[in-house]
Amino acid sequence: MKIDKFKVEEWFNKYEHKALYDLADTCVESLSINELIDLTGADVKDLFSRKLNYGDIYGSDRLKNAICTMYENQTPENITVTHGAIGANQLVMLSLIERGDKVVSIIPTYQQHYAIPKSIGADVKILYLREENNWLPDLDELEDLVGLDTKIICMNNPNNPTGAVISEKMLNKIVQIAQKSNAYILCDEVYRGLEHNGVMSKSVADIYEKGISTGSVSKVFSLAGLRLGWICAPKNVITEVNYQREYNTISVGILDDYFASVAIENKEKIIERNLSKILEGKNVLSKWLKNESYCSCILPDGGTTSFVKYDMNIKSANLCKKLQEDTGVMILPGETMELDGYLRIGYGNNPDKLETALNIFSNWIRQQ
Ligand SMILES: Cc1ncc(COP(=O)(O)O)c(C=O)c1O
Question: Is residue 284 predicted with pLDDT exceeding 90?
């Protein structure tokens, strides 16, 4: 299967190890195992005597029950455990999409949501989010794109890179549009739980009979190193997905399963920690934006990233390349997410470093 290059991941591979200040990251400062244990008070003694076999193939009951607490109406039969949200998204698409199928993808977002359907040979129609709509989908445009034969709508809420959060009311309208063509909705909900007002947004899996939610412990739980995600979907979809899954997953590994269970069982504590870091970072970002006349942004309502517009006559990839070469500040160019003229700035890590890096960026702008 031929597939387009994954532009964001390639940018990371090329630049991240050289960055002095990494503002491209989408995680909230990652946790160590010690920090996870301190924060949750988990007793992990029983872990060390466990045999390191494949473990529970589709995820342990403990983990699947914990994942169900992220939803309103889901049972373990609606869950399968995957290698990160990246594995979850790929498995859903490989299971449901066939050559010639009509797919609508809402972008900017993680490139999987349009590159994989395209690589399968689907007819992919793109709905671009626009800043003048507060980065929310224009529902008339969506209705025009979703024909009677659309197989699946691929979207992401809260959104990376813009940080926009779709309200329950709007999500219900998107469901109504999908229902007309009996289309699935795959909603990548990897940032769900990091809404800045502390209210977890509705999951598409809880409000639509053909809604599929993907998630992981990478962002909300600061545990990207576990490589653990999940699919929450109607049972028939989980059955289909598990056929595919036998070919690329077997299981996620006992250690990942164990620590993810600990984390999700203590979600209130971890989310509280993460939201406080995010809000601190967002405050730094918003103060900087007030003083930086060359940059502007609709402040995010969720997640860890902002999509900042810049007023300079240079392509975003060239800007980011030169900025990093000159100063060590790494920012992600909008071009890697199909929208030039924008920069993705993450603010979930150390706020002091963020402030320093943004000031370095401002000084650099003045020198251009
Ligand atoms: C929208 C989105 N989906 C999926 C992923 C992949 O996440 P994971 O680390 O859980 O595989 C990312 C990572 O940045 C993301 O931003």
Answer: yes
Question: Which residues are near ligand 1 (CB < 6 Å)?
Answer: 26, 84-86, 110, 156, 160, 188, 190, 216, 218, 224, 229
CATH of the domain at 308: 3.90.1150.10
Domain containing residue 315: 7-31+269-367
CA distances, 80 to each of 194, 216, 340 (Å):
22, 12, 36
Question: From atom 7 of ligand 1, which residue's Cα is the shortest distance away?
Answer: 85
Single pTM value for the model: 0.98
Cα(281)–Cα(220) distance, rounded to whole angstroms? 15
Q: Is 38 helix (H, G, I), strand (E, B) or coil?
A: helix
pLDDT in tens, 208-249: 999 999 999 999 999 999 999 999 999 999 999 999 999 999
Counting DSSP H helices and E strands in the chain, the numbers are 13, 13
Distance 89 CA to ligand 1 centre (A): 9
What distance in angstroms lies between residue 244's CA and the mean position of ligand 1's atoms? 20
Q: Residue 75 and residue 73: Cα distance in Å, rounded?
A: 7
Mark whether 215 and 75 lie in a shared domain.
yes
- 285 located within any domain: yes
- 95-123 pLDDT, tens digit each: 999 999 999 999 999 999 999 999 999 99
Q: How many residues does the chain have?
A: 368
Predicted confidence at residue 59, as pLDDT, reads 97
